[in-house]
């Protein structure tokens, strides 16, 4: 049985992502490592502190010890750590937003990025620009920070969170061909935002798991060859 270790910096995405795994990869062994102190440390610092990076690398190494075939890094805010760790970890590390970013630059020129936290917005913008550079594509990035939305969610007011995100999406959609959701936890809003803005919306959870599935399938085929 193949094993995937998903590493979370918060609680919110674990259950929704588990359902995607059950749909797309029902026969794998899925292990979740959740340390919800990490995203708080990133948000307070406004960047990824060294201690957070060290903890994440420790979790990647632990995933190796658990027999993981693939590691899924589920938090876009710490995607840069996953990128660097690929050079020292002996198994593939998938950034949950990697495929989403590649799809965006392959199909659209004006890309709006929606986030509720600056610590997620900036890494996602960098990732998309990196994918564009790799593909030789010219893209225009439009930042969409829904200020106050994350705080509303923390206060237990998801309706206010959704309202602020929707307002931001409508504004960004005026100058964008596609909307990219920087946080996987925002995927539940994908359809509502697309309908409200008449603009395609991309989210990361499903495409991230699809990338994991592709790697696992390729590994099985290589063993058979």
From TrEMBL:
Domain of life: Bacteria
Signal peptide: none
Pfam family name, one: Asp_Glu_race
GO MF term list: amino-acid racemase activity
UniProt xrefs under InterPro entries: Asp/Glu/hydantoin_racemase (IPR015942), Iso_Racemase_Enz_sf (IPR053714)
Family: Belongs to the HyuE racemase family.
Name recorded for this polypeptide: Asp/Glu/hydantoin racemase
